[in-house]
Amino acid sequence: MIFSNTTIKELHQALKAGTVTSKELYDASISAIKERDESIHAFIEVFDDQDTSVAVGDQILSGIPFAVKDNILFKGKKASVASKILENYVASYDSKIAEILKEQGAILIGRANMDDSAMGTSTESSYYGITRNPIDETRVPGGSSGGPAAAVAAGMVMYALGSDTGGSIRQPAACCGVVGLKPTYGSVSRRGLIALASSLDVIGPITHSVEDAETVFNVIHEYDELDNTSVPLDVRKTYQEKNVNNKVIGVPRSFLEVEGIHPDVLKNFNKSLEKMKQKGYSIVDVELPNIKHALAVYYIIQPAEASSNLARYDGIRYGLSEKGEDLIDGYKKTKTAGFGREVQRRIMLGTYVLSSGYHDEYYYKARQLRAKITEEIREVFETIDILATPTAPNVAFKFGEKKDPISLYLEDIFTVPYNLTGNPAISIPSGTNREGMPFGMHFTAPMFCENKLFAVGKDFENAILE
Ligand code: GLN
User: Fold this and answer.
1) Burial class of residue 160 (count of CB atoms within 10 Å of its CB; 0-12, 13-18, 19+)
2) What one-character DSSP code corresponds to residue 44?
């Protein structure tokens, strides 16, 4: 598989040297999709009639095929968030990330599948049907960026862009045995990302290697003056300068004793840390007293923000429009027909925790705890370089295995804390279980210190290979 055995930098060199052409890369991508995507269904739409005669320039991503999660706007292309409500929505402008990639001359192969409205952990809730895990097609690819992760893992594209609100890049990357990076909140523009929970959403890459994640991140982390949460580069630098560099990995031990974590996941995690010790890292236990509350906090803040963001799908301005007897009836019919079950559940939960009688009891408390957890994470990085946990408490599960919503939410336990705090985090393949299903190692760094994730991540990849 051409894309799985190389790096973006190598492809770029080969394109420049003329030993491969962008047309050949494009054809390789399309034929890999033809071969496997009927069963995997990583894509909602494939752009298979493109002119790839573009001259390959000096830009690192030019001429290289990639996939995009179906919630990032590319002008003139559909963007449905895999939901019925936006089924026929066509982007009227380019996201910042589309502007950057077009400028690079990167080749967009298609719109990748996801959970309806990016809420989920298994890609089982897409309006367009499930995506299968390329390693074992009886299992889920994770979610909500299951399509992008499966497309990369099956060697259909060189990299994919996903979004991560509570783990949606990292958890599917772990399930599919590839690398997933959630950049620091504020380092990649959200302009043109269809909003789920605006204080948590981040765009990031899913790749075959840590080096590729670094390559893509270095291209997409531009400051954007049209996104008021984008952080200027000189401010990011001040964070990078004041951080220790001591090769110390912190492990929040008591947090790993949560109910529902599979013993094999823990075994793999401890074994992987041992390998890092042999690489010269020291491993220390750290206390994060409130991190155990992160999941509960997330499932208040995320639905609250989602319920407010999704209010715009009213059948008047965007997407699906069902006629009603009057305005309210029209809203009801449109939303009932357009939103999937999980989306409806979150909207109800969100409006409940924001309602006047319960605002103080739930939403306000959750915000206080969020601030507390953020403070604890900031403090812990005064003594350690990087935090480590498994990416998820289980490997990719079988279709239909997790039916009740709570058991799906529990899959997010190790990923959501850093959406609440904004820290960058990465999931890296960490070997497989007896059935060949991959584990994920999850590293978190101080704010704007993606460079640390890449340095430690590369050491980790080497340690795992040895
Ligand atoms: N599993 C999480 C959820 O359902 C993640 C969502 C995301 O990151 N988009 O909320």
Assistant:
1) buried
2) E
Q: Whose CA is nearest to atom 2 of ligand 1?
A: 166
Name every protein residue with a CB atom under 6 angstroms from any ligand 1 atom.
118-121, 144, 164-168, 196, 302, 412
State the number of CA atoms in the 13 A half-sphere of 415 facing the CB: 36
Ligand 1 atom nearest 164 alpha carbon: 8
Q: Whose CA is closest to 146, among 242, 237, 44, 231?
A: 44
How many A from CA of 448 to the centre of ligand 1?
Answer: 22
pLDDT at 1 over 80: no
The secondary structure of 219-239 as a DSSP string is HH----TTSTTPPPHHHHHHH
Residue 42 Cα to ligand 1 midpoint, Å, equals: 18
Pocket test for ligand 1, best of 115, 116, 206, 414 (most atoms within 8 A of CB): 115
Question: What tens digit of pLDDT does each residue of 439-452 get?
Answer: 999 999 999 999 99
206-229 confidence digits (pLDDT tens)? 999 999 999 999 999 999 999 999
Q: Which two tokens stand for residue 380?
A: 């812990």
All structural domains of the chain: 1-466 (3.90.1300.10)
Give the relative orientation of helices 210-220 and 450-465 as an angle to the nearest 10 degrees: 160
* Mean pLDDT to the nearest integer, 92-114: 97
Cβ atoms of 92 and 113 within 8 Å: the answer is no
Q: What number does the ligand 1 atom closest to the CA of 143 have?
A: 1
Core vs surface per residue 444-466: b (16+ CB within 10 A) or e: bbbbbbbbbbbbbbebbbebbee
Ligand 1 atom at minimum distance from 145 CA: 9
Q: 């605006």: which residue's tokens?
A: 198
Tell me the CA–centroid distance for residue 384 and ligand 1, in Å: 28
Asked if 11 and 64 count as a contact pair (C-beta separation under 8 A), the reply is yes
- Whose tokens are 């047309």? That residue is 23
| Whether the Cβ atoms of residue 162 and residue 149 lie closer than 8 Å to each other | yes
User: Which sequence positions are flagged as catalytic?
Assistant: 69, 144, 168
Atom of ligand 1 nearest to the CA of 118: 9
Whether a cis peptide bond, with omega within 30° of 0, leads into 209 is no
Instruction: Say yes or no to pLDDT of 329 above 90.
Output: yes
Give the distance (Å) from ligand 1 centre to CA of residue 144: 6
CA 121 to ligand 1 centroid distance, Å: 6
